[in-house]
Design brief:
mainly beta; 2 domains; elongated
Length: about 290
């Protein structure tokens, strides 16, 4: 009797586990289900948006599965199978009868300064059949000030205690006592300084790198996301002044090899101040601000 009871319990557990088992997933050939193409990433603050061209069989798709790998995956070419280490991060369902050329999905909850790799597959037949993988992209989220969270710097001659800016923590800094020879500050804090200089052509506000930081004027931009990657070369040396102009975006390479940018959104030359938004890449040497799809 005990043996029979044990057998019945074993059979019940086996059937329960069998019913809970994940469905078998079959990888279809590209001819049967084309993979997502041209996967691109858009860098955000604690998140990454993925954009891709859709499968040509989207009419009968269940949707797309987005996979994430913690780290910089070395081989970015498309694969037949999902490589080891990639885990499902998001699902994008496609409503029946709805068809688009481009799809996008945002992966949130990421750590700024950490690099991640992503791929996407198309899925059909109740998610049991998937395509070959898309290409693989790498991205490193970074913090930025909010769309209306502007900082204000004053010209050194107007208010030296609020004439600098530290990108790493988005704070206005005290530039009092700055060394005008090498543009270093007593505290070693601050990446840029605002100055007001009167020239024959008139009084203007200027920006200069401090504490080893270098600067570059990237020009006027209606959308500052157009500045997607920091230039590798061509920066003005520390202490070299660039004219502060409304709407212009300025790339900044800090003294400890981090990259950031600001865009001037408001300014007043006579009162001696500028307001701007900023972003900063906490991963040393990473020049990516945003990859444009």
């Amino acid at each position: 009797m005990k043996h029979l009871a044990f057998l019945l319990i074993f059979l019940f557990v086996f059937l329960l586990l069998l019913g809970c088992e994940d469905k078998i997933t079959e990888v279809l050939s590209a001819e049967k289900l084309s993979p997502p193409l041209g996967l691109k990433s858009v860098t955000g603050d604690g998140k990454v948006a993925l954009v891709w061209y859709t499968s040509n069989y989207e009419g009968d798709l269940d949707g797309y599965l987005i996979y994430k790998y913690d780290g910089a995956y070395s081989n970015l070419d498309p694969k037949e199978q999902i490589p080891n280490g990639f885990l499902e991060a998001e699902t994008l369902k496609t409503p029946s009868g709805e068809s688009y050329t481009i799809r996008t999905k945002t992966v949130s909850g990421l750590n700024n300064g950490n690099t991640y790799s992503f791929l996407v597959v198309a899925a059909k037949d109740d998610w049991t059949e998937i395509s070959h993988t898309s290409n693989i992209v790498r991205d490193t989220p970074r913090p930025e000030t909010g769309p209306t969270e502007y900082a204000t710097m004053y010209a050194y001659a107007v208010n030296s205690t609020k004439s600098g800016y530290e990108l790493s923590n988005f704070t206005v800094t005290d530039m009092t006592g700055i060394n005008t020879g090498d543009y270093s500050t007593p505290s070693g804090i601050g990446d840029i300084i605002c100055e007001r200089i009167a020239l024959a052509a008139g009084t203007r506000l200027w920006l200069a790198g401090t504490n080893g930081a270098e600067t570059m004027d990237l020009g006027y931009m209606s959308d500052w996301n157009s500045a997607d990657v920091a230039p590798e070369n061509g920066y003005a040396n520390t202490g070299y002044s660039l004219t502060a102009l409304l709407g212009h975006v300025y790339a900044i390479k800090t003294g400890n090899n981090h990259y950031g940018k600001i865009q001037i959104v408001d300014m007043n030359v006579s009162s001696g101040w500028i307001s701007f938004k900023a972003c900063y890449q906490p991963k040393a040497g990473e020049r990516e601000y945003r990859l444009t799809p």
